[in-house]
Amino acid sequence: MESKKYLEDITEIKNMMNRSSRFISLSGLSGILAGIYALIGAFIAYKLVSNSHRGYLILDGHIFRLVMLDLALVALASIVTAILLSTAKAKKNGEKIWDSSSKRLVINFLIPLITGGIYILIILNQQKYGQTAALMLIFYGLALINASKYTLGYIRYLGIGEIVLGLICAFIPGFGFWLWVLGFGILHIIYGTLMHFKYDRKK
């Protein structure tokens, strides 16, 4: 009986240490919505490209700028949704949304992401289009894994999934669009659903 209580105490101490050093208010619902936004954005991009007279993207084309605007709006909607829903969850938990743990989370997420974004722009400027989708998935996956040390849940596995899809995409760039849809759309919905039922609903 005493050994059971001892183990429970150890578990509680471990949970307290995790809660004090990690940002725990990431909303699962924001992951689901980010995936839905990505699917909508991918559908719009697909229609823009398939209905253009070339049928493919070039860097200085009008369609390319529209697709970039489409991607930017998807990213903006996902970020705003994540901030609003995570803020609401933090308030519900009686926690601060912007403290040392959330700062570490954001900084460690942005370092690989911004590095990848700059690298992708460089190779696009060299008219090397073929690996764009693969690089987006790989650098995004690295950003998630790098940030996972400062939060809880399945975000590390989401990052691993994105990297695996990115490597597959590098081998078969002709399926880049569909692997992008799978990585940024479907995987986010699965991740958000698991997070929602494991961490949000039981609060």
UniProtKB/TrEMBL annotation:
Key word Transmembrane helix present: yes
Superkingdom in the source lineage: Bacteria
Ranges that cross the membrane: 23-46, 66-85, 105-123, 129-147, 154-173, 179-197
Keyword field: Membrane, Transmembrane, Transmembrane helix
Official protein name in the record: Uncharacterized protein
Taxonomic classification: Bacteria, Pseudomonadati, Bacteroidota, Flavobacteriia, Flavobacteriales
